[in-house]
Amino acid sequence: MSNETNTPQVVAFWQKFIAENNLPANLSYSAWSFGNDSQMADDLLALVLANKKHATSSYYDLYVVSGEALPQEDQYNVLLDGAGVAKAIIKNRFVEFLPFSQVTKAHAYLEGEGNQTLEYWRNVHRPFFMEEANQFGLNFAESSLVVVEIFDLVYVAA
After folding, report:
1. How far is it, in rounded angstroms, from Cα 118 to Cα 80?
2. pLDDT truncated to tens, each residue of the chain (158 aa)?
3. What pLDDT score does 6 carry?
4. From CA 153, how far away is CA 91, in angstroms rounded?
5. Residues 35, 36, 37, 40, Cα dihedral to 10°
6. Domain-wise residue ranges, the chain
7. Alpha carbon distance 87, 147 (integer Å)
8. Secondary-structure class of domain 8-156 per CATH
9. Could you tell me which of 98, 99, 86, 91 has the C-alpha nearest to residue 33?
10. CB neighbourhood size of 115 (10 A)
11. Cβ neighbours, 10 Å, residue 85
């Protein structure tokens, strides 16, 4: 997950969601896009909007080295497209920290990518996490922790 931002468009999108759902004005959120490039952000967002992607995962150690807060249950997230435009809001239903080797078939299915198998998930995420680790001088291994999130789509841009 990348590109955390709070542009005027993101803030307006969030405020519209808050107003339409009678939620507290001081409710917090994070704004980000999936992946590490604009095409991946658009592709994974499309899966969420198609109601196929209900989960995501990230490399735990990146939160540690960046000082970024770890995802939490009941957290709202504004999803951005590859251009940084707010398109949807999700709410985390479940967050867990697992070794890469212990991510389940059920989670891989909920991620909604490829053929939704654990084998596909591992074949795509292993090199992705390794590349992220290398950028920060870290070593990714099968025992490395992964942040596993399951979420609900709660709002979509009109």
Report:
1. 26
2. 344 578 999 999 999 999 999 999 999 999 999 999 999 999 999 999 999 999 999 999 999 999 999 999 999 999 999 999 999 999 999 999 999 999 999 999 999 999 999 999 999 999 999 999 999 999 999 999 999 999 999 999 88
3. 84
4. 7
5. -20
6. 8-156
7. 23
8. alpha beta
9. 86
10. 9
11. 15
- What is the sign of the dihedral through the CA atoms of 111, 117, 119 and 123? negative
Token digits of residue 54:
């209900």
User: CA 86 to CA 7: how far, in whole Å?
Assistant: 9
DSSP string, 27-64: --EEEEBSSSSHHHHHHHHHHHHTT---EEEEEHHHHH
Three-state DSSP at 114 gives coil
Tokens of 47: 């899966």
Quote the DSSP letter at residue 2.
B
Residue 59: phi and psi, rounded to 5, are: -85, 115
Rounded to 5 degrees, φ, ψ at 141 are: -140, 170
Closest by CA to 80, choosing from 158, 3, 139, is 3
Say how many Å lie between the first and final Cα of the chain, rounded: 24
CB 142 within 8 A of CB 130: no
For residue 139, which of 129, 147, 148 has the smallest C-alpha distance? Answer: 129
